[in-house]
Amino acid sequence: MAKILITSIGTGNYDREAKETSYRTAEYYLGDSSKTVSSAYVYDALYKLRGFDKLILVGTCGSQWYALYEYLYKPESSIKPIAEAEYNEDYWWELYGLLNEKDKRSADVSEMRQKLDLLKQTMGDICAEIIVLKYGLDDKEHLKNFELLSQIAQYVDNGDSLSFDITHSFRSLAMYELLAVNYIKDTKKDVTLDFVSYGMYDFANENNKLSPIVDLSALINLTDWIKAAEEYKRNGTTALLAELLEKGNAGFPMSKEKKKVLRRLGGDVILTHDFKEFKNLIKKCVKYATKDTKEIKGDARKNIAFDFIFGDMAGRFSGCLDDDMHLHTELAKWHFEKKRYTQAVITVVEATIDYCASLIGTDREQVRGRMLNISSTNPIVGDFRKRYNTIRTYRNDLAHARTLSSNDLEKLEEYIKGFYTTYIKHFKENFENEEALREALGKAVHKKEDIH
Fold it and tell me: Going from the N-terminus, what domains does the chain have, and what CATH number goes with each?
C-alpha cells in the first residue's frame, strides 16, 4: 500500500526586485507551528512533514518546469536526483526556453511531456508520472484534461491512499484533480482520499511569517455523502451510506441509534419485507426529522445527507403510520418508482393477504385461497379482486424471471397506483365497502393458489 501525492506545478509569483517570475520560499507547517519546513514547494514541505511514497506532478506548458529541475539539485530539496543524473545546464536552458514560446496555450501537450522525461528520470522512482494539461479554455480542453488526469489510475493500486495539493498552478486544476481522484476512488477497490492540502502562503503576513498547510479533505469528503444521498434518491438504497458509516467517516457526531437506522434503511429491512421493523424505522425517521438535535447528545452538528434521508422517509410515509394497509401500498408505489418491480408486487400481494386475514380473523393461507374466487354485488369489491389478481399474475411472472415489456410495466404501474387509490378512497374508513369485502371473503370457497 502506497501513499501517493498529486501536486501541481504552476508559474510562480512575479518578483519585482528580481524582475522575474519564480517560486518564493515560505515557512510551512502542518498543525503544529513549532515544526516548520522552509521550502518553495508545498510538495517538498509535505514530504518532510507527513511523507509519501510516490509523487505525480501535474502542470501545463506554461509551468516552471525549469525551476523545479533546478530546485532538485539544491541542498534544501527533500527529493534528491538519482546518483547518475548529473545537472544538465543545456537541459535547464531547454526548459527555460519553453517559457518564451509565443503561444503555450496551443502547444502539443504530448510533445511537452516528452521533453519532461529527463526531469522525471532525474527524480527516480518516487516520481510516478508527470502529466501535462491544456490550459482548459473551452469544453474540448476540459474533457481532454480529465482524460489525461484519469490516467493516474494506472499508477494506483488497490489499498493505496491518495492525497493532492492545490496550492500551485491554475485554480481550475484543483477541480480537475478532484474529479480525477473521485473517478479513481469509484473505479479502484479500497483506494482512499486521506489528505487535500493547501499551503496558505499569503497568510504568513498576519501569522508571524509562517504559512500553514491546511487540510481540506473534510470538505472534499462531502462528495461521498452527496453520492450516498443520490444513491438513496435514485434507488432507495443506502449501501454507500452504510459503507461510509462502517469506515467511521460520518464527518459529524452521530448516535449509535441513528447509525443503525441508516444502515437498515434501504437495505435488509426493506428488501426482505420486514414490515414491522420498517414501520419502526419510519417512526424513528419522523423523530429525527422533527425533534431538536439537542435531544441526542453530540448531534448539534448535522450532516445534510442524513437530514435529507430522514426527512424524505418521514415526509413520504409518516402520514400512513396509523394504517398498515395504507403504509404497505405507499411502500409498493415507492418500490416501483425505484424500479424494484418484484418488491412492489410482493408488497401489494402480501399486504392484501394480511389485510383480508384481519377482516375475517383467519390465517393467511385461508385468505390467499379465498381471494381467487370472491364475488360480490358490490362493484368496488369486484374491482379490488380484479386488481389483486392482476398484480398477483405479475408477481408470478417476475418470480419466473419473465421479462416485462415497457408496455407491461406501464400497465403494472397503473394497477399498483389504482390499487392504492381503491383502498384509500373506497376501503379505508369506509365501513360499507369493507363489510362487503368481509362478507365476500367469508362466503368464498378456499381454493389452493398456484404461487409457483
Answer: 3-217 (3.40.50), 226-317 (no CATH), 324-443 (no CATH)
